Amino acid sequence: WRIQRRHGFDLIFIIKRMTRGNLRRSAALLQKVRGLGESNVATGSAKLFDMSKSSAAFNRQLSTLSSQFSSHSSFLTRFEKCSAFPSVSAVRYVSLEALKPSDVFEPRHNSSNDEDIADMVKVAGFSSLDALIDATVPQAIRRRDGMPMGKYTEPFTEQAFLKYFKTMASKNVLRKNVIGMGYYGTYLPTVILRNVLENPGWYTQYTPYQAEISQGRLESLLNFQTMICDLTGLPVSNASLLDEATAAAEAMGMCLSLSRGKKPRFLISASCHPQTIAVCQTRADGLGMTVEVLPDSEIANRLSKDVGGVLVQYPATDGSISDYSALVAAAHGVGAKVCAATDLLALTMLKPPGEWGADIAVGSAQRFGVPMGYGGPHAGFLACCDDHKRLMPGRVIGVSQDATGKPALRMAMQTREQHIRRDKATSNICTAQALLANIAALYAVYHGPEGLLRIATRVHGLASVFAAGVVGKLGGGVGGAGAGEGPFFTLASSSPFFDTVTVSIVAGKGKGGKTLDADAVVAAALEKGFNIRKVSDTQVGVSFDETSELADVDLLLQAFYQAAYTGNAGSSSSAPTFPPSASTWAEDSTVAALETLPANFTRQSKFLEHRVFNSYHCEHEMLRYLKRLENRDLSLCHSMIPLGSCTMKLNATTEMIPITWPEFADMHPFCPVDQAAGFQQLFHDLAQQLCAVTGFDAVSFQPNSGAAGEYAGLMAIRAYHAANGEAHRNVC
């Protein structure tokens, strides 16, 4: 250090370069040169630094210097033979290497240094890492050229990565999303955000196949199952699936299995979310099933002995709530099962599917604290009757006893699963979302039944105020179209609703000849900062959620008003007055009438009565509960987990930080594409990188799990053969 301070160059850097950054060898070399004398060390290092500026010369020196550093004499001899040494006092070098950022990602993420790698390679019986790879990877497939990574020519440091992603995130335009369709804004309690979602003690564990080191998560997943069973009114639930659409496809497969393959037809209500219908249609092709999408009113007429099941949405994608008891009776009459895709928050107020006869209930737990994330990941669920549990896909957590007779948790009925039954498993493409299921369960634990009901009541109330505004403040009606120049908006259905209101538009000319259609209303809402759903050319949908406020109702009604009545030359004096603030009429009888659910739809049964859902409603109690669960698990916070698995790749902290940024977390998957430029850049760049790595020409990000990706790949190969007239090539 005296030499470095006096002569102004980086001796430590020189030594590190000589030893290729190996810290142990650097320390040993530094210890040796301390006894050589200041003049000799400084002079020799200065000369070596001159050579380092010519990388070829420096690399040639590096190839021979290591052996010569074994003794003091060889070190001195090497530099005594050099001529034309610069004056040491004149040397004032600033190392460019030393000026580079120090937060380099790779050494922080991969702890093995050169000496560690050399030792491991030696134990394996090889002289170098290249020799080991040459012996391991066949030469015919060994890649020796670099991978073209486009604009990413140099690795990011951690801070540069965060800065880059901040710039990317800023390209996503945040609007208030009231699109619905199964995705809703939600508030994740900060005690769960900080202590679970952002806590590696929760997100780095392995799949809980080894119960002894997974008791914390198993308890939380058992809470998830209890929550699903209570809310759906069905006795058995699994511990999550991939999402609502794939859960519906799994239910469809269950219906086929329950009929032993003899009932291949499956009827789906047109009132289901469109993505759910699409996934079921795709999956049905692989299962050899026939899917028919029908209006609710026609399903009963299409029932026959070859129908394995029926899928309905409760509440429907347009928000309406229907009484399916008659349909259930008709379906059961021909031996078909009834599946209900449902909403957990709505079920705190509505009669649960199990009470009106549904055999299977599916859905998403997303609105229980999980951000939309432009479509995922979210935890799906599937609950069913007790008679069907052996054919239910996914893992099930059960209560058992340990060797001492004490209560213990484990994964039950694993004999149904792929890792045991392989091709005879109940499902080969079901995937759990354990972290998101835990978050949803903990959301219910923190709020409790009363808290969830308060949230649901508030959401339903806001939807009712909005609907009353359409009816009473914009000159609309219910269930019919207006005439002449108004009213221009009516409620699309007279059925009760929970959180979603679909509005019909009297398409054509508005006041002053202005074109009025769904696009005009969507545009007016966008000007107010909202994304609403375009259902058709003459219908739009508005869905309220936990993040909605009364002020949002005002802005939305103003948008509807402006779409119809303003901005027109010669606007008629018959236009209604500009809607007053909802706070002045939210308690009117019109609102109360819309807010009141019919008795046959109202939930009478209690839910979430277990002690765990009624004990941890203040932060310090919840924090202690979370910590107790965390301490019962083994995660990467405690040790390495030596298992070869697609789930065992540690996500570095820096990589995890952006997932909770609002620009990524709060994007609705059906928002306009031009609002998601950051996500589009992410998809484009990642696709280029994966193509470079794999050698393929295109990438699909649609499958949201490894199993779903494998299935998608097989289906693509199958479709390729079919397109070439070789559909008979169906053996894999």
TrEMBL record:
Residues 108-560 form the Glycine cleavage system P-protein N-terminal domain. InterPro entries: GDC-P_N, GDC_P, PyrdxlP-dep_Trfase, PyrdxlP-dep_Trfase_major. One of its GO terms (cellular component) is mitochondrion. One of its GO terms (molecular function) is glycine binding. GO terms for biological process: glycine decarboxylation via glycine cleavage system. It comes from the Eukaryota. It comes from Polytomella parva. Keywords: Oxidoreductase. The keyword Oxidoreductase applies. It holds the Pfam family GDC-P. SUPFAM superfamilies: PLP-dependent transferases. This is Glycine cleavage system P-protein N-terminal domain-containing protein.
